Amino acid sequence: MDVYQAIKSRRTVREYKPDPIPQELVRKILQAGRWAPSSSNTQKWHFIAVQDRDTLAKLGKIATHGPFVGQAPLCIAVLMDDAPRPQLDAGRALQQMELMAWSEGVGMCFVGVREDDQQKAIKELLGIPEKMELITLLPFGYQADTPKGPGTPRKAMNEIIHWERFGGTAQTQ
Ligand SMILES: Cc1cc2nc3c(=O)[nH]c(=O)nc-3n(C[C@H](O)[C@H](O)[C@H](O)COP(=O)(O)O)c2cc1C
Fold first, then answer.
1. Residue 170 buriedness (CB in 10 A; 0-12 / 13-18 / 19+)
2. Stated pTM of the model
3. Quick count: other Cβ atoms within 10 Å of Cβ 98?
4. For ligand 1, what atom is nearest to the CA of residue 112?
5. Which of 25, 87, 104, 129 is exposed most, by the fewest CB atoms within 10 A?
6. Of all protein residues, whose CA lies closest to atom 19 belonging to ligand 1?
């Protein structure tokens, strides 16, 4: 799958088959995060790959914005350690992981864990040092065969793209 096709076809996946993701692909997904660009190349990230069923089930119970974590065969926790621009760096790394997975038929969902009690419980469960920032949980898996609606809509180009200056429209010739 080429990059544009992966970007255009990608959709958030929240229902997973129980099938495991081959370990070689798990490593490729992690490598895709590792090779992401970061502010001043600080690479202040850590990625915890969780595949233990019991731990996944516990994460699914804690993460109220993504209980389906409990059904996924893989969950990657994204942490930042005193990074200058943690959200931007983490965002670039997780997008690369998502597209890498998608290009091989594996989907994922960004699961927000901003509530203090959820942060604390997940940090305890995964042994994450207190000083680190837990950005998100990313459950990955092969999409379950349940009926899906049409793709998530996007705003029209002319609503969000401006040519040369704000409000500028495209030249027609
Ligand atoms: C920063 C961010 C936070 C998100 N948090 C959640 C979440 O907690 N739970 C969830 O089910 N989806 C979450 N999503 C997924 C979005 O709902 C989804 O990407 C959006 O509806 C567009 O759908 P698509 O990814 O299929 O194109 C999040 C996405 C982003 C970028």
1. exposed
2. 0.96
3. 24
4. 8
5. 129
6. 12
